[in-house]
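**Paired protein data**
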Amino acid sequence: MTGTFLEFADTVFGELPTNHPARLLQLNRFVTSGLTPAGEINGYQSVFRGKIKAATNPSFTAGTELYTTNSKQSIRTTIDAASTLALDIRTNQYFKDGNHRTCLLALVLFLAEHGVVLTSSFHVYRAYTIVSARFHPGNESNALNAAARVDAHRRLVRYLRRRTIGGVATSEYLETLAETVRQLPIIVSHVEEVGARLQKRWEHKGHIWDTLNWGHKVVVKWTFPEFKKGRTKLR
């Protein structure tokens, strides 16, 4: 990808609900810097003309607060709605590129919009592996069928319920999580490379596992279920 990274505060602004097409376009522009891997202008896919029209006529004003916190609904209800929104983006692939990252950043903002913040035990990469549903038989050509979507939603809700509390999101909190989401391709490519090395049937794969630190072993096991039992699965 070419281009300059966009600043969060300069890209995501104005009082808009997180599920508004214009807000989602802001999130997509931030995580991809507005470009596809081929260097083309990113944005909604042409088949979603209604969303494109709404996104190009946004009702927001630069300089206003990012959102108005609404904490009237319960944390459980908010988590369910945030997960539904995230899986909707990931399933329908609204954008030319960056749908996984957009759905995760939308998840973060939707929770914050309704007075729910993530605790330190939340890991963006773990949430990514859940919404990816990469090993589910319903994961077809980067889209999810109904069964896979239900399964991913159930897993995501269960994960979030143990890692959320009521609270007000600060600018630093949002910017830190947003930047972590944007950096996902780097983490994904690294984990895939390690996984490919481990899956090779050669005599040094046990040694490779032993050289990984605890953090690397955790993300590899999140990504490749066959390594859940660690080194014993490499024999």
Q: What stands out?
A: The longest helix spans residues 75-92. The first strand starts at residue 116 and ends at 118. The chain has a mean pLDDT of 88. The beta strands are 116-118, 139-140, 143-144, 164-166.
